[in-house]
Design a protein that fits this description.
The complex is a heterodimer.
Chain A (H helix, E strand, L loop, with lengths): L1 H27 L5 H6 L5 H10 L6 H13 L13 H36 L4 H14 L3 H15 L12 H35 L2 H8 L4 H39 L4 H10 L3 H29 L6
Helix pairs in contact in A: 1-4, 1-12, 5-6, 5-8, 5-10, 5-12, 6-8, 7-8, 7-10, 8-10, 10-11, 10-12, 11-12
Chain B lengths: L9 H18 L1 H4 L31 H37 L1 H15 L3 H12 L3 H27 L3 H8 L4 H13 L1 H24 L10 H8 L8 H31 L1
Helix pairs in contact in B: 1-3, 1-11, 3-6, 3-8, 3-9, 3-11, 4-6, 5-6, 6-8, 6-9, 7-8, 9-10, 9-11, 10-11
Classes of the chains: A mainly alpha, B mainly alpha.
């Protein structure tokens, strides 16, 4: 197990290296030109030259890459053009908000998906099953910005149960402010988890060891908790890891809809403000979060099912 | 073997109906839309749904129903162009990688790892931000990221197919590898990629409307569902109909594509 942990930890290195390459390529090699994107079409030549020099864009591509790596290694991701702050500072301020939103959404989706998956699987093809699956199918086709807007209007503006934006000042307020956005985000993940978990439970319930346990007279509740849930959870954990990218992408939009000062909202604002270093830094930060989550879910999976670690 | 109407799985039938209707609206919007989608009527600002305007009018007096119908043209286009390039590049590269194996496969594996560590939407948004907002740049961004998923599906499938007897037979006949790959292996490997294509169309509509909402996709005054929802977002308490109806169109179309995807997968499973 500890060997697996170590091996998986080492595998993180090439992944992080690739993230750097992709982020670098994104800005330098695509046909768009960051400088004119920052300054607009009617920029003065002198300004273009100055910004090019500031961003190091007047060097050759390999030199730029080395400079980029050096800067990243020393924790320097450049400065925001509009906010005049180091990008690392902005990441430290904004990323925790996004991570908290995502974690809350992940927990909520589990709370929704697990019991409903059991109901759907054990009442297979009955009315309850169809109703649950139908609802989630519709939920899956609903874009987060639309669902968010409706929830915000109904529960925020109309009923006044929840704040219509912001993040609050204390931990309790954070949770209160993030409740609706996290629910918005949770629904589509819950749909995916529910579908997978339902299929997994149906598969496990028919398995020989469960039939055997039942024939020994073990109580159905105990069988469900000890055998069925555990083995159904393994595939859920790996699906969870794979979905984290989608969840973070959804968080970007949710933050925009609910005016939450997180990394995603800052990224979108930076696109409007043509604030290149911030877009680049946030893209990198979010990718790092995903790769760390892959790492964590792999470890949890190995812990639940020791065969994975071999 | 032909399927009688009763044998067609219900999801496929329902999805087919939804997408069929969407296609008709997308091709002949002017036939069904009662008004011009961009015509402003200052005598009918923010009117609630009525017989004259079944989905009401927006803050410029434009007929919401007509805008929703005309948006079918744009959003169905997004479903098509948002996926077809990924599909085409993906299956070609996937077939080559799957056949070649070895180093090509290793490099490809690394590329897949790199792409899946980026949240899909974030990467697409980042690319669009470099290229500039607009539908064409959005298609480029989707193709740059999306081909990987098709290539992965096809590569896995071709790896299995190339070991089968008919592939050996093709090679023994003296066919070139290209002919074996594209005339023999690919047609046998393509089904899962087509199922994924249909599901991906649902995702493309969700993503295209999200970018439209954020102002990075279709640009106003074009009638596009995401753009329409963004137009109405400040009037949710006074004129909910401006945003709510375009959203219903997104849900119905997305549902249509995913039902077809599920239905196709079901048909293929039972045939095996």
């Amino acid at each position: 197990m500890s060997l697996f942990f170590l091996r998986r930890l080492i595998q993180l290195i090439p992944t992080l290296a690739f993230i750097l390459v992709v982020v670098f390529v994104l800005v330098r090699l695509l046909p768009g030109d960051p400088t004119s994107a920052i300054l607009g079409d009617r920029a003065l030549d002198a300004d273009v030259a100055r910004i090019n020099h500031d961003l190091g864009l007047d060097r050759s591509i390999p030199v730029q890459f080395v400079l980029f790596l050096k800067a990243v290694a020393t924790g320097n991701l450049g400065n925001s053009i509009t906010l005049k702050l180091p990008v690392t500072t902005l990441i430290a301020q904004r990323l925790p908000v996004t991570v908290m939103l995502t974690v809350m959404a992940a927990l909520m989706s589990l709370v929704m998906a697990v019991p409903l998956a059991f109901v759907a699987a054990l009442r297979r093809d009955e009315l309850a099953d169809s109703a649950i699956r139908g609802t989630f199918q519709v939920g899956l086709s609903m874009p987060v910005f639309y669902l968010g807007l409706i929830l915000l209007t109904v529960f925020g503006a109309r009923l006044g149960w929840f704040p219509v934006g912001g993040y609050g000042d204390s931990f309790g307020e954070h949770i209160y402010h993030l409740f609706l956005p996290a629910f918005t985000l949770a629904l589509s993940l819950a749909a995916i988890l529910m579908r997978n978990l339902r299929a997994a439970i149906i598969g496990v319930v028919g398995a020989e060891y469960v039939v055997f346990a039942r024939s020994k007279g073990i109580m159905p509740g105990v069988i469900l908790m000890r055998h069925v849930l555990r083995s159904a959870l393994i595939s859920t954990v790996s699906l969870f890891g794979l979905s984290v990218g989608t969840l973070l992408g959804g968080a970007v939009i949710t933050e925009t809809v609910f005016a939450i000062p997180g990394a995603g909202r800052l990224m979108i604002d930076s696109i409007y403000g043509r604030d290149y270093p911030v877009v680049q830094g946030m893209t990198m930060a979010l990718a790092v979060v995903v790769s760390l989550t892959f790492f964590l879910t792999d470890v949890v999976e190995a812990w639940l099912d020791p065969r994975v670690a071999r | 073997m032909t399927l009688s109407l009763r044998q067609i799985p219900r999801p496929l039938l329902l999805g087919g109906l939804l997408i069929g209707a969407s296609l008709v609206l997308a091709v002949f919007p002017a036939t069904f839309a009662p008004y011009d989608p961009v015509a402003m009527d200052y005598n009918a600002l923010m009117h609630a749904p009525s017989w004259a305007h079944p989905m009401g009018t927006d803050n410029f007096g434009r007929d919401v129903l007509s805008r929703v119908i005309h948006a079918y043209t744009i959003d169905m286009q997004i479903a098509f162009f948002g996926t077809i390039f990924s599909f085409s590049f993906g299956i070609v590269i996937g077939a080559l990688v799957g056949y070649a194996g070895g180093l090509a496969d290793t490099i490809f594996g690394r590329i897949v790892d790199a792409v899946i560590t980026f949240p899909f939407l974030v990467l697409v948004i980042a690319i669009v931000s470099v290229l500039g907002p607009g539908l064409v740049n959005m298609y480029v961004a989707l193709a740059v990221v999306g081909w990987v998923f098709y290539a992965r599906i096809i590569a896995a499938e071709v790896k299995v197919q190339k070991r089968l007897d008919y592939a050996d037979a093709g090679r023994a006949m003296g066919y070139t590898p290209m002919r074996v790959i594209f005339r023999h292996l690919l047609p046998n490997a393509i089904t899962p990629a087509i199922v994924y294509l249909v599901t991906d169309m649902a995702l493309a509509i969700l993503l295209g409307s999200s970018l439209g909402y954020l102002g990075l996709g279709a640009q106003p005054p074009t009638a596009e569902w995401g753009v329409q929802i963004a137009d109405g977002k400040n009037f949710m308490t006074t004129g909910w109909w401006i945003s709510v109806f375009p959203g219903v169109a997104i849900v119905l179309t997305g549902l249509g594509f995913s039902l077809i995807g599920d239905g196709l997968a079901e048909v293929l499973r039972t045939r095996k």
